[in-house]
Specification:
Rossmann fold; 141 residues; 5 strands; UspA; Universal stress family protein; alpha/beta; Universal_stress_UspA; Rossmann-like_a/b/a_fold; five-stranded parallel beta sheet
């Protein structure tokens, strides 16, 4: 059974990645599915001056759950068991580290998320992940 990691950022391409995995499972491929949402660190001193760490943590958890919910719904409706989690940090690094530490066999992810400006300036999350992992990465457009 292959352990598949699907990074979820709330984008349509991330949901297409989930749908692709669902289709693979329906076709008879045996996968264990895990969803991962990565929330960016809030580095601004202004935000930290007005909100407690507890408030920021709760906000991040709420944002992560909102972004994970549509993917969780697709998997639940398809009767496919899954795990889901969220972490904070720079998305490509967090995804790569998570995949390595947990021993995933493959990453399936969308090619473009919600943040186009970041993609233009820093390179896409998918490209970053490709450079950081040594396991297969399937990109869904």
């Amino acid at each position: 059974m292959a352990r598949i990691l699907i990074p979820i950022d709330g984008s349509e391409t991330a949901l297409r990645a989930v749908q692709w995995v669902i289709e693979q499972i329906r076709a008879g491929v045996n996968h264990q599915v895990s969803l991962l949402n990565v929330q960016p660190e809030i580095l601004s001193g202004h935000a930290r001056a007005y909100f407690t760490k507890t408030d920021l943590d709760a906000f991040m958890a709420e944002q992560a759950q909102e972004q994970l919910a549509p993917a969780q719904k697709l998997l639940t409706e398809a009767n496919i068991p899954y795990e889901s989690s969220f972490e904070r940090g720079h998305a490509p690094m967090v995804i790569a580290d998570h995949a390595k530490k947990a021993g995933f066999d493959q990453i399936v992810m969308g090619t473009r998320g919600l943040n186009r400006v970041s993609g233009l300036l820093l390179g896409s999350v998918a490209t970053g992940v490709l450079h950081l992992v040594d396991i297969p990465v399937t990109l869904i457009k």
